[in-house]
Amino acid sequence: MSRMHNPAHPGEVLRDWLPEQMTVTQAAKELQVSRVTLSKVLNGKAGITAAMSLRLSAWLGTTPDVWLGMQTQWDLWQAKKQPRPNIKPLERLPV
Amino acid sequence: MSRMHNPAHPGEVLRDWLPEQMTVTQAAKELQVSRVTLSKVLNGKAGITAAMSLRLSAWLGTTPDVWLGMQTQWDLWQAKKQPRPNIKPLERLPV
DNA sequence: ATATGTGTTAATTAACTATTTACAATACTT
DNA sequence: AAGTATTGTAAATAGTTAATTAACACATAT
């Protein structure tokens, strides 16, 4: 029964990983991305790319999958809210 | 020790899911995407988007995560092959 | 008041997905 | 052999997104 409700966007989760006194500017510098890029991620204005997940994992000591998977679930949630075509399930020969 | 070696791209895996006699043209029709779009996915010229994973899961009776997750791992593998910045791990206060 | 630092927006560039149209190559049918 | 279907791919177009730098408003410190 997991992931039933609107998940937090990954940037929100990332925010919780930053030390209290750490500024966006400083974090961006350590991640070697621009201030703007990090700010957008933190505010859900941009997603976490594969490359970004590698940066985050190197910095925070996690696996990249944590971040990329979170983004994937977010993307999926968003896509589910869009209108979808009516696709008839493929008939497979019974085994 | 999973995912150590170059993973097959998702399109390759998808190909194995199609019934023997099913043509790309026919599959594209059922998925309600253009022939070109499906062909590109099958040949690794395009990735599987969240929307596409929903189509595939509806058609093939899987979860969307199967396809989207596969794409994610592929993307991660590709990203790992790129040159990466040297990021110093964040010093955290010991617990 | 002047300077500095901070977070966000604006504008730009680059990359990617998806569509239609078109073409060449291959296979299948009659 | 002639015609038909299938496939992969390319070109042109439209829409989306990520990343950068430049610019802005706001705060803080000297």
Notes on the structure:
In chain A, helix 2 crosses helix 3 and helix 4 packs across helix 5. The first copy, chain A, is elongated, with a radius of gyration of 17 Å. Chain A is built from five helices and no strands. Chain A is mainly alpha-helical and about 100 residues long. At the A-B interface, helix 4 and helix 5 of A face helix 4 and helix 5 of B. Chain B binds a DNA duplex (30 and 30 nucleotides) through helix 3.
Helix-strand string of chain A: HHHHH
| Oligomer category | homodimer
Helix share bin of chain A: 40-55%
Ends apart, CA distance between termini of chain A:
29 Å
Our Rg estimate of chain A from Cα atoms comes to: 17 Å
Overall strand count of chain A: 0
Shape of chain A: elongated
What brief labels describe this structure?
DNA-binding, 5 helices, 95 residues, homodimer, elongated, 0% strand, mainly alpha
Give the gist of this structure.
Chain A is mainly α and 95 residues long. The first copy, chain A, is built from 5 helices and no strands.
Topology:
Two copies of one chain form a homodimer.
Chain A: H1 10-17, H2 24-31, H3 35-42, H4 50-60, H5 64-80
Helix pairs in contact in A: 2-3, 4-5
The structure holds a DNA duplex (30 and 30 nucleotides).
